[in-house]
Amino acid sequence: MELTTEQKSAMIKQRLEQYSMQIFSLQMDREALQAAGDTEAVQTTDKRIGKLQTAYSAVERMV
């Protein structure tokens, strides 16, 4: 069974929303880590944010 164009669009939209929420959550974590002075964890979080932004862009191109 193949998905309809509408189903695919809905799934893409849902995935992009999930990525947006994950990115924002990590940005909040990053601010807290920065305030606590944990520079190593800030760098790790920056990498995770970057990977999610790359994934977001890849899925966004599927539209």
| Number of contiguous helices | 2
Q: Indicate the low-confidence ranges by residue numbers.
A: none
Distance between the termini: 20 Å
Residue-averaged pLDDT, rounded?
97
Q: Give me the Rg, rounded.
A: 15 Å
Structural class per helix/strand content? mainly alpha
Helical content (DSSP H or I, runs of 4+): over 70%
Number of strands: 0
Order of helices and strands: HH
What shape does the CA trace take?
elongated
Q: Approximately what portion of the residues adopt beta-strand conformation? A: under 5%
Largest sheet: none
The figure for the number of domains is 1
Short description:
Helices cover 86% and strands 0% of the residues. It has helices at 5-36, 39-60.
Can you offer a commentary on this structure?
The chain is mainly α. It has one domain (about 5-60). The chain is about 85% helix and about 0% strand. It has helices at about 5-35, 40-60. Helix 1 (about 5-35) runs antiparallel to helix 2 (about 40-60). The longest helix has about 30 residues, at about 5-35. The model has no long low-confidence stretch (mean pLDDT about 95).
